[in-house]
Amino acid sequence: MPKTAYLHPITADGIQPMASLGGLLREWLPRQRWFAGKDRPLTDLRLLSMTELFPGCLHLLVQTGQSGVPAPGGATPADDCYQLLLGIQEHLSPRLGRALIGRADFGPLAGLAVYDALQDPRSTHLLLERLRHPGTLGPLRFESDASVPVPAGLPPRLLDAEQSNSSVVYGDAFILKLFRRIQPGINPDLEVPVALAGQGCGRVPAPVAWFRTTHPQEATLGVLQPFLPGASDGWALALRALATGDTFTAEAHELGRAMAEVHLALASALPSCAHTDNDVTAAAMTERLEAAAHHVPALRPFVGALRTAFTALATCDPGPPVQRIHGDLHLGQVLHAGREWFVIDFEGEPSRPLAERRSAHSPVRDIAGMLRSFDYAARQRHPWRPEWARRCREAFCAGYADRAGWDPRKKHALLRAYETDRAVYEVLYEARHRPDWMPVPMAAIERLAVRGA
Ligand SMILES: Nc1ncnc2c1ncn2[C@@H]1O[C@H](COP(=O)(O)OP(=O)(O)O)[C@@H](O)[C@H]1O
Ligand SMILES: [Mg+2]
């Protein structure tokens, strides 16, 4: 019998289980794709909550502390909270070998194997059972939209995607996203799709079940949504078109229409009373530019010219009112299925504070994100085909204008400011994570700087 009974009662200060788990997790956490603070050593690990989901499976929230100064933009705060699902077994079956985190040497779990339970179909099956039966378990609350039945026994598979969270697909019918970095409050990736579903917006898969914690603070932990079978993401489709020499203008046009629909639905679903204040936006963008240039010397020669993109905001047409937006829009966040575009992943940039992600912004920010993404796609091919990206850009904006009633192409100053801000973010991101990709945003920086000169 597994010795999980040792875990009861859960100690309030978490000292006992961490005697077993602390050393193992310190090694394992920084190696995970979704661990954000890879640039600095993990110096502290504290248990915030632990719940036995079912025998042999523990749900943990841990707080990490890291030494060193975080880089701006991709900033990891000094303390970060992560959600983990750990399996505990005496003898780990060989098929779970890759999931092994290690064997505990000390504490109440000494001698037992600790592994990543998301890689264990038995655990992910039981997790779905938990979601199918709303209720309370310690600090955890499992809730659902009772009007959408979720069948039992859907076979689980862990998605192997380049993700900042972890997702499990159930029988090609549902997908469960487990948030990895947890911030207090409702996650916009639950809040926004629920609100859009309330508006009858069919562009976003509507959550059917979710779970959250009430301890140590209220926070969203996971969302189950319908899976779009046979869907391809926009990034894969764009690269395919580039590889075969096809245009992507019809798709980009439809995507523009879809995005305008989502923005319109968002504006009525989550109204915001904030008024457009381009001065504040310009100041924040300038601050981000200067901080990025501090970290990335290659940016420095362009700072003067780029700053003009932001100062121009003070005098330009204020543009559309601010509202809730997607917050991290690019071709990887849109799915094409059954001839329609769908928009997913409303979490925003996970490195930004939740309050900022949930506040109102200009929809131009999302548009600029997508326009930059066309440029990224076009730059994946040699020779570079700037015409391909330019046509996508035109088509996307035209499609957007069709539905939104205003044309992004007529908002030059706004677009330039938001594209510059996005390119600055990209430079910082690539400098930290993918230095080989630096030429992509740097080419945009040069172009945007010349336009300002
Ligand atoms: N409803 C869905 N139907 C089909 N595939 C999906 C769905 N939601 C997400 N995916 C797949 O999962 C990937 C990651 O989802 P996403 O919500 O963007 O997670 P993350 O927050 O980790 O980026 C997507 O790129 C897509 O391939
Ligand atoms: Mg995503």
UniProtKB/TrEMBL annotation:
User: Is Isomerase found in the keyword set?
Assistant: no
List its EC numbers: 2.7.1.175
**Under which pathway is this protein filed?**
Glycan biosynthesis; glycogen biosynthesis
> Catalyses which reaction?
D-maltose + ATP = alpha-maltose 1-phosphate + ADP + H(+)
Family according to the record: Belongs to the aminoglycoside phosphotransferase family.
Quaternary data:
Monomer.
Biological processes, Gene Ontology terms: glycogen biosynthetic process
- Specify the Maltokinase N-terminal cap domain's residue ranges: 28-120
Report any Pfam family annotated for this entry. Answer: Mak_N_cap
Q: Which GO terms describe its molecular function?
A: ATP binding; kinase activity
- The keyword Cell membrane appears for this protein: no
Which keywords fit this entry according to its UniProt record?
A: ATP-binding, Carbohydrate metabolism, Glycogen biosynthesis, Glycogen metabolism, Kinase, Nucleotide-binding, Transferase
The protein's name is Maltokinase
InterPro entries tied to this protein: Kinase-like_dom_sf (IPR011009), Mak_N_cap (IPR040999)
Its ancestry begins with:
Bacteria, Bacillati, Actinomycetota, Actinomycetes, Kitasatosporales
